Automatic annotation (TrEMBL):
Organism of provenance: Actinomadura macrotermitis
Superkingdom: Bacteria
Cellular component terms per the entry's GO annotation: cytoplasm
Cited Gene3D superfamilies: 3.40.50.20, ATP-grasp fold, A domain, ATP-grasp fold, B domain
Protein name as it appears in the record: D-alanine--D-alanine ligase
Residues binding Mg(2+) 1: D263, E276
Amino acid sequence: MELGHVVVLAGGMSFEREVSLRSGRRVTAALRALDIPVVLYDTDASLLDRLTNDPPDVVFPVLHGATGEDGSVRGVLELLGLPYVGARPDACRIAWDKPAAKTVVRRAGLCTPDSIALPKEVFHDLGAGAVLDRVIGVLGLPLFVKPTRGGSALGTSVVRRAQDLPAAMVGCFAYGDAALIERHVEGTEVAVSVIELADGPHALPAVEIVAPDSRYDYTARYDAGDTEFVTPARLSPAAAARATEAAVTAHRALGLRDLSRTDLIVDADGEVHFLEVNVAPGMTETSLLPRAVKAAGLDLGTVCHDLLLRRFP
């Protein structure tokens, strides 16, 4: 079975545009190294004409942020009748909404930090001070604040002092209209990527993230050298097995397909806590899924090719 025309989608107009373009270029280069005919398209006003006038065999979306991960562009691909790699729109919508995803995986038996989601309007209308005092009274400190939708750690922060919570909320609202405030779990931060093979989803080796000052923010994610990555993660065999099981469980419970990446914290007792899942994992030179692919002894281009073949009619 040969692929004659593959399109990689990247870019778009989200806050994560530049990261998406870097991911797209990496996937394109990895496929071209295998002599697969592939072109990289930006997600702009010319896209529909391009896809209609020269329909590809399969599309590989590498879009990060809104429209790329909320299922919107994938819905358009389905309207065009084009097969594509990755989760379908309905699954994307649930995974993209972090509070909704936490609810689904908790029902599936995973542990996830207690939290509350606060839209900007509620935060404002009910009185910021009173609401935040109550949040701290119930959830305690430290807390982790992040947009309910979004990625690349944009708008996120750890809050260890009550007086720092208002500023964290303001920073969060710069990237979204609602904030997820959850109890911050201290421990080892790991990412477990899942790829689907002929016999179902398989977890790749966990990647441990050791960020400067324990702050895995946008800069630490995408500036080479700022963060140490250890693969496989330095976990006990039992904790590593639980992390693997958690990632596969999240992938299945959320109805994802082909690939995903689940972010977890493993606490001092070896308990695994689900944080969030990504339906379009980064593919840059510092991204976690390519590191896990390499640690598993696999080639990124071959993995991408195999995923494309899964969707090839």
